[in-house]
Amino acid sequence: MDSSTDTWQLYGETFNSRLLIGTAQYPSPQTMLNAIKTSGAEIVTLGVRRQSPGEAGGESVWKLIRELNLSILPNTAGCHSVREVVTLAQMARELFATDWIKLELIGDDYNLQPDPIETVVAAKELIARGFKVFPYCTDDLVVCQRLLDAGCEVLMPWGSPIGTGRGLMNPYALQTIRDRLPGVPLIVDAGIGRPSHAAAAMELGFDGVLLNTAVAGAADPVLMAAGFRDAVAAGRAGWRAGGISARQTATASTPTIGMPFWQQADN
Amino acid sequence: MDSSTDTWQLYGETFNSRLLIGTAQYPSPQTMLNAIKTSGAEIVTLGVRRQSPGEAGGESVWKLIRELNLSILPNTAGCHSVREVVTLAQMARELFATDWIKLELIGDDYNLQPDPIETVVAAKELIARGFKVFPYCTDDLVVCQRLLDAGCEVLMPWGSPIGTGRGLMNPYALQTIRDRLPGVPLIVDAGIGRPSHAAAAMELGFDGVLLNTAVAGAADPVLMAAGFRDAVAAGRAGWRAGGISARQTATASTPTIGMPFWQQADN
Amino acid sequence: MDSSTDTWQLYGETFNSRLLIGTAQYPSPQTMLNAIKTSGAEIVTLGVRRQSPGEAGGESVWKLIRELNLSILPNTAGCHSVREVVTLAQMARELFATDWIKLELIGDDYNLQPDPIETVVAAKELIARGFKVFPYCTDDLVVCQRLLDAGCEVLMPWGSPIGTGRGLMNPYALQTIRDRLPGVPLIVDAGIGRPSHAAAAMELGFDGVLLNTAVAGAADPVLMAAGFRDAVAAGRAGWRAGGISARQTATASTPTIGMPFWQQADN
Amino acid sequence: MDSSTDTWQLYGETFNSRLLIGTAQYPSPQTMLNAIKTSGAEIVTLGVRRQSPGEAGGESVWKLIRELNLSILPNTAGCHSVREVVTLAQMARELFATDWIKLELIGDDYNLQPDPIETVVAAKELIARGFKVFPYCTDDLVVCQRLLDAGCEVLMPWGSPIGTGRGLMNPYALQTIRDRLPGVPLIVDAGIGRPSHAAAAMELGFDGVLLNTAVAGAADPVLMAAGFRDAVAAGRAGWRAGGISARQTATASTPTIGMPFWQQADN
Amino acid sequence: MTNEIEIFVNGKRYTVSGSVVLLDVLRRLEYKETQIAVAVNEEFVSRSQYQQWALADADRLDIVSAVEGG
Amino acid sequence: MTNEIEIFVNGKRYTVSGSVVLLDVLRRLEYKETQIAVAVNEEFVSRSQYQQWALADADRLDIVSAVEGG
Amino acid sequence: MTNEIEIFVNGKRYTVSGSVVLLDVLRRLEYKETQIAVAVNEEFVSRSQYQQWALADADRLDIVSAVEGG
Amino acid sequence: MTNEIEIFVNGKRYTVSGSVVLLDVLRRLEYKETQIAVAVNEEFVSRSQYQQWALADADRLDIVSAVEGG
Fold first, then answer.
1. Rounded to the nearest 10 degrees, what angle do helices B118-128 and B82-96 cross at?
2. In this structure, are residues B209 and B194 in contact, taking their beta carbons and an 8 Å threshold?
3. Which of A58, B63, C159, D202 is the right S-S partner for F67, CB 3.0 to 4.6 Å?
4. pLDDT per residue over A110-149, tens digit each?
């Protein structure tokens, strides 16, 4: 079993890396580039924001990223309505020349959670307009099913709220989604704080992990990118290799027969 | 920060790999060899058992391992008393030509836990006889301190009982040991079930992980060895890179200023 | 602070007990009655099912319950569509002579979770028809907000899937709902397995707990009913009494000054 | 099953209440008295400290407690050696006219954990001098066994470090102790923060709970005492009543047969 | 209102001859009106309507009563 | 198409005199068409439309470019 | 038994002149015997011994009473 | 050193006649000295001692070799 052949597909495209990485919050553009390269990610997320007249805007970041020759996944971060999402997605499509879109439709400004109801509506609208939708959603199985019904070919349930770094708040819910939706590419998006969280997500059978703050906000983002690269590989191997189940009682690893010093009672 | 320079010392010897691996329970000797090689481990554990007259015994395993040219850490698995430990350790020293010994003195046959009291006594005895002791111990800070007082230069607290695969039962206790004993090489030994467990141990600041069942008992031990190799690297990077702290509330990763569609009230 | 005055309101009615209890799955009707009485519950849930011609049906259970003179909360268990819910609710209203309804609209037959989207639609329909809706919902804050917008005056998010007894799967999500929706009566419904789960729900600031299987399925349902009665009271007191926060480090409870045997260095 | 008959024995004495409570850190003596009375505790802990010449010392507290006519369990809080414990215990025996002693021998000043090795030595010394020893110990099964070997008739493993309020850090370890030492009175001592923690300890099959900070440090200690009283009763009932086991998959509580609206395919 | 029609009661087929008034049908099936609630073709029919409600061929009746529930 | 109108660009008020063709306005504001995307009154307007699109008084323009994102 | 000696009571230095009998010393320090317990040089001394117990120079006394405890 | 004695090897009884020197006994049992380690009555006996070590009646020998371990 060669890991180089352990590829996966997203909307018909094939990828080797299972780590998707964001481009925000790095201490410098150079650190961002180094972190992305080190991460091995083949897909990066970007955003769209107002540019003042005469300004160069985020063009510089986009220029840097473009040179990496990676797949771009623009997001609709900050949108609170279907209308905003649809307009922003179209703007992103033109800017980045891709019909991929990370659908992010916030339902509450406190936990920044995706709106479970409007996200489904927005997914339908976007798909009707030809988008390939990567929906950021909660860990609700029924919402996931509705998104599939709407035509999404990948799902991105959260681990925990964006930027909290709390990891997998509800592994049972994520496991349920995995079990009930076999064959659907599943990516844990948001809430990942440490490499072990990413590994745990992959061990549940998820297909990928998308994160940003955990790398960009580390003291050493490049080293942390290496950590997450390895963690995703580790968790993936853990899942593919068919791990042992947790047991209630201890069992020796070293053989117990042939232990010296033991004498039969009647000797 | 080059990972090739992130070495550590055990009793004066320098190692690159932070994964120590056991040699028991593999489906075949060849699988064992492949798993060990893939794991990148530089230290492997071996045991000692009675050999019947005229038998080749475990010589074959030992022969195979010897060719890998790794550091050998013989164990005293199955011992229930200081006397047994001391005799078995001496036998192991002669057999494996090393003064390293994994001190394992079982205090209860149900959870196979190290005896917190007798392990300290045995450590003193062994050190008096010139051994370099790697004590398998519980996650009790005071026992750890006594083992250091006895002359141990490394500690190996359990994650959970041997073979249970439950991971880190008590991360708080392990964190306390790490915080209170800075500079002491700490290895989580026993109970690791999945790569994410190993990563989590390293993220606590532990220096290494020792495991056996989780790899040997996997459906594909070689792939699982790769998983643990990467998990240990991932957790180590996570610790060195200075990760973010978990937060109670969400924070956007994509910039929030410049969000389109927003209009000032008075415009 | 007298616990007899710690009442709460549901749709304008005042209650003392904060434990709501189901009537299904008891080993006998007498055990059910004893358990309900022991629980101190003032609200019990009932269902509606087909009755064959000439049969007495569940009339017997209903008769027994009626004599307890408690508030009845009929459910729409088993419904998979808004239409089913609306019809069943109307049937229940006539049968039980109450406009209270526990809205249960299942979205998935595996985890029996409430449908986050259709439940909101159903709530609107029911409220338009004059019902007082107690929606069984997931722990999704936005769904909860939509249910309030629809006119619900109480919310009943799940702890974990019905009958699993797993307790609070996602305390963070429940805490978020509590924090974001102050003043709204919140009841944890489903998934409670042990008294400590019920206490934990109340300690989060929830106003009540609704359960069935945990009592009815116990070896001794009457004793378990007492256990949950006490657990809800305990958790409520714990919340009202303003508990201590968990701390990272130990602090002595017994005074540390005046410890005997201690001598100043220079004495 | 009448809860008034659910008594337990400690060194031959019979008790109804399973909550033991400390007397330190209350905002006032009157609050302390009210909290103790409300808690229903029949056993309270007290300490011993230096009294300056001419001072009334803690006599006042002791006087108040004495009038409650409860069993007194003096502690050796703050002791760091066997010698200190033995002397302090003798002083306490004379002061409180009881041969009960809560053996507390601190092994580390950071986590205030009991010394697993010296506590066993001290227990032997005290028992040889006629004491009835209540050892505060870690959750280490082997240490517990050694304390029983030494003659202790009750064990008091910690939940988590004193004053942290973290609850049961390692339920697996506590469960192991319960399972391996049937018939031995087991009390969780230290670390309890909320009523649900106390209930959870009892649900493991523990016989009692000893706490102080969680009540004394609450905003309303008297109400919190009521909460813990109920929580201990709740957890005890939960254990005696034979609770359901947690399940992986959902099961309806309301009957599934007879669901209306369902039509056979061929109708 | 006296044609012979076929109806479904709780998923089972019945032939009704004589009065097709809902109240009459319920009585012939030995239901006690105070203990049941009725839907026809998945729409609720209240007790007050039983006397005027004429069933039609192929109508699907759900007749329910109280049961235990969670 | 040469009336003086008032428009909002990214929430700020601008007075436009002369051509109200979107492309002209963008150029006068020194935007590079290849680096931006535009919505008028929250509806997307594609690059191919810039040349024919006449702005009206009180139009709200959102002009965005690529930024870092998570 | 009337030498002047120096002792430590709860860590503080005292000079004792006159009787060095423990009971006398305790009374001079205004302790009530029924409310305290005593250790000398970290060894327990019971109440029944107070009257016969002669203190020696440099003895360290711990005199304790009941306090609240957890 | 040629008495007939009874010893236990790894828990099994053996009768040794002829030389009771440990080295001779090991060779008769077909052990390879470089692959084993030996304890007599639970005390370690090093290889260098095999040639001088005389076994006694009822001695318990443990003869071990390397095995896999965790």
1. 40
2. no
3. A58
4. 889 999 999 999 999 999 999 999 999 999 999 999 999 9
pLDDT of residue G1: 47
Dihedral of the alpha carbons of C82, C85, C87, C88, in degrees to the nearest 10? 170
- Backbone φ and ψ for A98, nearest 5 degrees, come out as -145, 145
Q: What is the pLDDT of residues E8-38, one digit of tens each?
A: 999 999 999 888 999 999 999 999 888 999 9
**Cβ neighbour number for residue B99 with a 10 Å cutoff:** 16
Q: Is the dihedral of CA D44, D48, D49, D51 positive or negative?
A: positive
| DSSP code for D106 | B
Task: Tell whether ipTM is more than 0.85.
Answer: yes
Q: Name the pTM for this structure.
A: 0.92
Q: Which pLDDT score, from 0 to 100, does residue D189 have?
A: 95
The predicted pLDDT at position D267 comes to 43
Where chain C has pLDDT below 70, the residues are 1-4, 56-59, 264-267
Whether D132 sits among the annotated catalytic residues: the reply is no
Whether D81 has its CB under 8 Å from any CB of chain B: the answer is no
Cβ atoms of B62 and B248 within 8 Å: the answer is: no
Buried b (16+ CB within 10 A) or exposed e, D63-75: ebbeeeebebbbb
Chains E and F touch, using 3 or more CB pairs below 8 Å: no
User: Residue B103: what are its φ and ψ, rounded to 5°?
Assistant: -80, 115
| Mean pLDDT of all residues belonging to chain G | 92
Q: Which of H13, H42, H67 has its CB closest to that of A261? A: H42
Neighbours of chain B (3+ CB pairs under 8 A): A, D, F, H
Strand partners, B43: B20, B71
When pLDDT is cut at 50, 70 and 90, the band that residue D266 belongs to is very low
CB proximity A81 to C under 8 Å: no
Which residues of chain D neighbour E64 with C-beta distances below 8 Å?
A: 258, 260
**Which residues of chain F neighbour A45 with C-beta distances below 8 Å?**
69-70
Q: What is the pLDDT of residues B127-142, one digit of tens each?
A: 999 999 999 999 999 9
Task: Give the residue from C71, C118, C121, C124 showing the smallest Cα distance to C99.
Answer: C71
Closest-CA residue of chain B to D172? B169
Question: Which residue on chain G is closest to D216 by alpha carbon?
Answer: G70
Is D115 in CB contact (< 8 Å) with chain B?
A: yes
Q: Which residues contact A230 (CB under 8 A, 6 or more apart)?
A: A195, B230, B231, B233, B234, B237
F8 touches chain A (CB under 8 A): no
Residues of B in contact with F13 (CB under 8 A): 267
Please say if the pLDDT value at position A220 is more than 70. Answer: yes
Give me the residues of chain B with pLDDT under 50, please: 1, 266-267
